[in-house]
Design a protein that fits this description.
Keywords: Membrane, Transmembrane, Transmembrane helix. Helices cover about 45% and strands about 25% of the residues. The protein is an alpha+beta fold. It folds into 2 domains: about 30 residues; about 70 residues, no CATH class.
């Protein structure tokens, strides 16, 4: 018991209320900044649906180049549709290909491409 009595009289100076409030304020500010950055990163990254739309448009563009199908049309996907339009672009043999992504009758995204056509394709 003599060993314990030596430590019983030792007192640690307690932190003041002001120091505790300052520490909590600093921690809360850091947490607020971290949450804002996290939300900003989540909002800036494309969703899975947007990535599927972009992939479907890219596939349609590659298929257009391979098959040389210059007819306007509609490509139907499970959750959206892609409207394809071919427009003249200037006096040269260049054509503008416009892919419009539609979801529930609303235009979601428009993708524009330029394709140079050979003389026999005109």
């Amino acid at each position: 018991m003599s060993g314990l009595s030596k430590y019983s009289n030792y007192r640690v100076p307690a932190s003041s209320l002001l120091e505790s409030v300052i520490a909590i304020t600093i921690i809360a500010t850091c947490l607020l900044i971290a949450i804002r950055l996290y939300v900003q990163v989540l909002n800036s990254s494309p969703s899975a649906v947007e990535l599927k739309m972009r992939l479907a448009v890219d596939k349609a563009y590659i298929e257009l180049q391979e098959t040389q199908d210059w007819e306007e049309g509609m490509i139907t996907q499970p959750s959206f549709r892609i409207a394809k339009r071919i427009l003249p672009y200037g006096e040269t043999g260049v054509r503008q290909v416009v892919f419009t992504v539609l979801k529930d009758q609303d235009t979601v995204q428009v993708y524009n491409y330029l394709i140079e056509m050979d003389d026999e394709q005109l």
